[in-house]
Amino acid sequence: MLNIAIISGGDSGEYEVSVKSGRQVEKHLDRSKFKPFLISVKGPDWVYYLDDREIRVDKNDFSLALPEGKITFDLVFNAIHGTPGEDGKMLGYFDILGIPYSSSDVTTSALTFNKSYCKKVVESCCVNTARSVHLFRNSENPLSLIWENISIPCFVKPNNGGSSVGMSKVNTPDELEPAIEKAFHEDHEILVEEFIKGRELTCGVLRTEGKIVALPVTEIISKKEFFNFEAKYQDGLAQEVVPAEVPESVSDEVKVLSARLYEKLNCKGVVRFDYILRNKDLFFLEVNTVPGLSEQSIVPKMARAHGWSMTELFTRLIDEALIRNT
Fold it and tell me: What is the CATH number of the domain that holds 139?
């Protein structure tokens, strides 16, 4: 029986979503193989709840002092969306301690978490991306930089982060400055990106039994103006069609491209690649290296369409992570 620490929570606007993901991992983990310990991470507070008791993690070796004795972990299942789990910070800590984890490593996590830098690497693989302007809080003449490169409508979003927290669609010039302020409230870097009209497609990818597997391509149809935080996590505001009702050639192209980028970016665990399909052209949007794993999340729906239960998906992720570290 292997001890598995499931970390969830974090320090971003995705906290509640991450908590739901962590609970689902705990619920569906195969109890014949794994003993789960759900650990809440919030700032300096790393806590395991035993009935009504709070037991704090010993950060010297990432262990728990329980009544039956000291508990150390064979693997950490990373369910933290946003910082410090998806940007690589905690992963560096686990590397120092020599504890395996389920997600991508420090370098890949840090790169992909930064949307602008990630896009540049993806562009070097001859993949289409939307035109964008990367701004820092101290950027000079930001509005001039934007108007020189981007037209309206456009999107303004935090450069580091996920779940569309702090993201706005700008349809008129007077909406731009409030959108910039909103994005800077979430991050010290923002991305202003051209709007590409088309169908939103997404594909989950993982390595299992030594092979890269692309899960069924999914189309996201939002009832909001775009697939924002509200549409993602409130019932009835978005439709996720699994598998996407697109020509087989398009589905194959999305899967092949996603598998290629998974390898090029040196991804580990399960990740999700997002695209816009405009006519016959695919445009890369972003990659999520710690995608949602709640009942409402897309990757579990993809896995079920592929023929895997959530238990099988999580077992495959754990088994592959352990193999990587042998």
Answer: 3.30.1490.20
244 with 114, same domain: the answer is: yes
Q: Which of 111, 78, 81, 322 is nearest to 208 (CA)?
A: 322
Q: Give the pairing type, strands 211-214 and 34-42.
A: unpaired
5: alpha, beta or left, given left = phi > 0 and alpha = psi -120 to 50?
A: beta
Give per-residue pLDDT as tens, 257-280: 999 999 999 999 999 999 999 999
Q: 187-228 pLDDT, tens per residue? A: 899 999 999 999 999 999 999 999 999 999 999 997 766 444
> Which residues, 6+ apart, have CB-to-CB distance to 205 below 8 Å?
212, 213, 214, 215, 258, 259, 262, 267, 270, 271, 272, 273
Instruction: Report helix angle 298-306 to 310-324, nearest 10.
Output: 100
CA distances from 245 to 65, 205, 281, 282 (A): 51, 19, 16, 16
SS3 234: coil
> Does this model's pTM top 0.70?
yes
Q: How far apart are CA 232 and CA 33, in angstroms?
A: 32
